[in-house]
Structures are given as C-alpha cells and as structure tokens.
Amino acid sequence: MHVLFSVAASVAALHRPVVGTTTIARLDVSEQSKTRLSEAARSLSICHQDDIEKFEDVCGRIMEESLSDDERAQIATIFAPGGPACVHVRNLPIVAAGGELPPTPNDLMEEMRPVRKEDGASEAWLVGTARLAGARVYTYRNFYGGDFVRNFPRKQGAELGWHRDGVTAPPFNPPSQFYRDEELVPELVLIFCLRGNAQAQTMVVDFAALVDACEASDIARLRTHELAFFDRQFGGTLEPTFVVKGPEQSPVVELRPLERFEPRGDEQTIDAFERVYDVAQRMHERVCLSAGELLIVNNKRCSHARSPYTPKSEAVVDRWLQNVYASRTSALWENDAQSHVSWPARFVP
User: Fold this and answer.
1) Residue 191: which region, alpha, beta or left (left: phi > 0; alpha: psi -120 to 50)?
2) HEC per residue, 255-284
3) Domains of the chain, with CATH numbers?
4) What distances in angstroms separate CA 177 from CA 11, 85, 309, 310, one per listed residue?
5) Cβ within 8 Å of residue 73, ≥6 positions away
6) Using one digit for the tens of pLDDT, what is the confidence trace for 40-85?
7) Which of 77, 177, 188, 349 could join 83 via S-S bond, C-beta 3.0 to 4.6 A?
8) Cα–Cα distance between 280 and 272 in angstroms, integer?
C-alpha cells in the first residue's frame, strides 16, 4: 500500500520496528520543486561520463537547493531503521526546461553500450538523489560499457524474477564464485522512468516482513542449510549459499526466480525455500513506473521483480528506464587502498 509521508511521519519512522512498516512509500514532488529542478538542469555543463566526481557534487547541490525540507526528509527515510524499503518519487521533470526527450535508443541499449544524451536531467536526478541520501554511485568493471547510468532495452519485455541488483549480475568470478561479496553489493538501486509501459509492474517484497510471515522452522532451516541453484538459461550452477542471512532484525533473503533457477539440495531445504517463495509471491507490493517517476530501492532490505510486458510497435517511443547503483560512505569508499576498488574511477569487480 502506498502512503504519502509527512515530516512528522518520516521522523516517527526512525523509531518504529521494521516489521509491519510500509514497503513502498510515495513522495509527490511539488510543482514548485519540479520547476526549480527543470530550470537548474539547464545549467548543467558537465556530463556524468566526463567527470563523475564533479557531476555528483553539482547534482547533489541541485537536489538540495530545489527540493523542500519535507521532500528531502522523505528521501532520507530510505535509510531509516523503520523506514520504507522503497521510496516512489513522482512528478520529476524528464528533461531540462526547454529540452526534448530523444527517441528511445534501442540500438545502443540492446548492445549494452553507453547512451549519451545532450540533456542530462534524468542522470542528474539519479546521481543527485543518491548523493542527497548520503550515498555515492559506482559501477562494476566492464558492465554496460562501464557507464554509471545504465539504460535498458525494449527486448527485456520478458518476466524478470526476484533479484537484488549486484548479487550475481554481473557474475562476480565465475565459475568458482557467482555471488558477489556483500560489501560490494549496492545499498541503493535508483530507477528512473523516461518512458513507461502500463503493462510493466515492478514487484517489491520486504525481507523483514517476509520472514515474519513465514514459518519460523522454514527460516531457521534456510539459515543453516545451503542450497545451490541451477541456472536453466545458461546451464550453470551457482555455488551453494544460505538463502536467509544477516541479523534477525535485518535479514536478507536471496530469492531466485523458480522459472529460471532450479534449487538443489536436500529435500527439506528445497521445500522450505519453495514455501518462502510462495509467501513472497502472495505478499509483495506493486508499482507501475510512468515517465518522470523515480524508485529508490534499499537493496539490503528487499528483493524486486518485474512483470512481463509487450514492447510497443514503434520502438522510438518504447519503454526507457535508467538506473544507478550507490552505497553510503563506508569501508568500500573510505579505504582508497582496497585492492578490489578502483578509485576514483569507482569500478568494482
């Protein structure tokens, strides 16, 4: 269920337990803030592909100066202990004032090549919102051409099952290790819609609520018995993992879509996984992203999926989403000498 946060509600969220809180909170950006954003985007003189450090700083300031105190507070709830798993932001400008959205660049996106637009408004909202939340964007080496802002093609009209971005896509070090170390999995996935498709529904399931709704014996078994998953699409098997991990107050449930992944292990553990999966299929919340809408996903709190949709016959006006990965300042960023982080290029293996 969507709710509209007030300042009091967002402050109160800091003191509520996670279980039972809203999975997807809604923030409607005011017309005044939207106008300030679109005007500010006209002055963008730097592209994220040229200087991500400068672009991030500039866009963070734009968001800080253009949004109201209430709007900024609602975005901050994404990291509050009792806050929502996602914040659905509506009424953002698609382009800068006086700008025009180009045709959907399917030819570039289907080859997973970077897309360079003259108008950087959408990229600014993605990178700037992450900065406003206290996070910094990064990407994985050799992923989508190394671009920090990924664009998604119309060919992805097939169903996209339960996943957390960055866990196994791109694979970490196959065939010995597909699952990425948790510290390298982004805390936030921010998704902006430039053009929508009413058939495409994004599903979100909150892990704490999911664990609370399942049989305690199933959760306990999935914490102590590993499962491996055979990938029917590529014909390989991921290394064994515990499906339920993390502390009891903030669990992580590694759901794998059954239509693609076949669980392998002892029968009792497989049965427990399938029961938990069925609960997730019943209790998730849905949102359909339209043009000018941004979904801020706490990637440590929830799993998301997308329903199938039919691409539009005229490809130039087809569905167009962008996303970025981001994490807060932590050991990943504070220790510049870490061997697995290329700094300041921000490429992570």
Assistant:
1) beta
2) CCCCCCEEEECCHHHHHHHHHHHHHHHHHC
3) 7-348 (3.60.130.10)
4) 41, 28, 32, 34
5) 5, 7, 10, 11
6) 999 999 999 999 999 999 999 999 999 999 999 999 999 998 899 9
7) 77
8) 13
